[in-house]
């Protein structure tokens, strides 16, 4: 099990995990609940930039000898993606050391392709970013918010809505950005980003979790979204 903070965030039905003889979890997210199983071997490093960085270091001997260019490129992409292409505060000297080992194993052309893919957006994502800047709402001087209705993302890929939180995160003044993306059933996925103050404890109160400055949560309806927004405005 990789890069999954708690059982509720696993895709699909996770009840089958209880039937497994052994379960290994490798993650850089702090564990708040779940995985309290006798047969679960947990490897957690909250100071690691990414789970990809952890894997690259844990299996360093394999990586050094690997001729699988796709594997090496995917590990690099995982690290580059989670660090915002090495701009986020979770980037450390260990991150650069790990990346240096990977870069020595695959071509500059592959690296260029990964960087281009991470930095590019399609037309649908561009429209969503425009929507975010046009419809953003300040809960107070420190918190900027956005609600993305399902009608706005219908016809595209729901996962593409992540670009909206990235757009608001780039604004200079607010310290915290929050985006609520409506699902087809009327529930919401919440994306939270902070420049300084931890927000993962708040996310945990709303069936979520994550890192201190980057977390996710869930809301069953618009009323619960409003409750979370109000709590953010009051606390920050």
Automatic annotation (TrEMBL):
Span of the signal peptide: none
Domain DHHA1 as annotated: residue spans: 164-233
InterPro entries in UniProt: DHH_sf, DHHA1_dom, Oligoribo/pAp-PDE_c-di-AMP_PDE
Gene3D superfamilies: 3.10.310.30, inorganic pyrophosphatase (n-terminal core) (3.90.1640.10)
Pfam families: DHHA1
Organism of origin: Limosilactobacillus ingluviei DSM 15946
Entry protein name: DHHA1 domain-containing protein
A molecular function GO annotation: nucleic acid binding
């Amino acid at each position: 099990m990789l890069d999954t903070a708690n059982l509720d965030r696993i895709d699909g039905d996770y009840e089958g995990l209880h039937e497994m003889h052994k379960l290994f979890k490798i993650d850089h997210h702090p564990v708040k609940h779940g995985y309290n199983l006798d047969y679960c071997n947990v490897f957690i490093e909250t100071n690691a930039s990414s789970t990809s960085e952890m894997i690259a270091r844990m299996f360093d001997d394999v990586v050094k000898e690997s001729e699988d260019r796709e594997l090496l490129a995917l590990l690099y992409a995982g690290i580059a993606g989670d660090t915002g292409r090495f701009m986020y505060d979770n980037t450390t000297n260990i991150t650069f050391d790990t990346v240096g080992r990977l870069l020595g194993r695959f071509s500059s052309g592959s690296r260029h392709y990964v960087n281009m893919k991470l930095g590019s957006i399609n037309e649908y994502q561009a429209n969503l970013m425009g929507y975010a800047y046009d419809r953003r709402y300040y809960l107070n001087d420190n918190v900027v918010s956005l609600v993305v209705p399902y009608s706005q993302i219908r016809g595209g890929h729901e996962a593409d809505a992540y670009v909206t939180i990235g757009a608001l995160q780039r604004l200079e003044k607010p310290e915290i950005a929050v985006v609520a993306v409506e699902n087809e059933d009327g529930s919401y996925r919440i994306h939270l980003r902070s420049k300084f103050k931890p927000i993962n404890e708040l996310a945990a109160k709303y069936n979520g979790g994550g890192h201190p400055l980057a977390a996710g949560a869930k809301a069953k309806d618009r009323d619960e979204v409003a409750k979370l927004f109000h709590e953010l405005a009051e606390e920050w």
